[in-house]
Amino acid sequence: MTTGGAPRAGAAGRPPAPALPAALLAGLLTGLLATACGASGNAGARGTPSPSASPSPSAPAASPAELCTRIVAHWSREVLDSTAYGDYQSMGLSNGQYEILRTVVDAARTAKKRQGADAADELIDREAAEGCADRYRSGGPTEGPWQ
Fold first, then answer.
1. Residue numbers of the domain that contains 104
2. DSSP assignment of 30-98, as one string?
């Protein structure tokens, strides 16, 4: 029997922890489950989806020429200081895009020797954009004169 309404000691001789109200306990469990079951791998530090979790509905899709420009400029910078170009398929380029890359890199190497790295970098952006715009002006492989 206990005296004076004091809590009984637990098995280890310690008084039992105060009971959490059921509503608080349910709220904690719900919060933990919601966090654990959230977007897998895309949750930010607070359990909210990161901005990259879903594409912006207002962002227009890139055109084939824009995609070509990005990939050709990227790989042009990668191979600028190299003596070899590598395999165009491993770069994710078509044969036509690879030809643009070779032209861009040759011009960028010359510009880098004469005017420096900044000039070569600007030339890569400009020449890749022009080459890809020309390539996709009349359509891609499944449209326009390619058919």
1. 64-140
2. HHHHHHHTSSTTTB-TTSSBPGGGS--TTSPPPPHHHHHHHHHHHHHHHHTT-S----TTTTT--HHHH
pLDDT in tens, 89-133: 899 999 999 999 999 999 999 999 999 999 999 999 999 999 999
Is residue 71 one of the residues assigned to a domain?
yes
Residue 88, domain member (yes or no): yes
More confident residue, 107 or 40: 107
d(CA 10, CA 2): 13
Q: Is residue 11 part of a domain?
A: no
User: Where are the extended beta strands (E) located within the chain?
Assistant: none
Output the CA torsion 99→100→104→105 (10° steps): -40
The number of distinct structural domains making up the chain is: 1
> Considering the entire predicted model, what is its pTM?
0.56
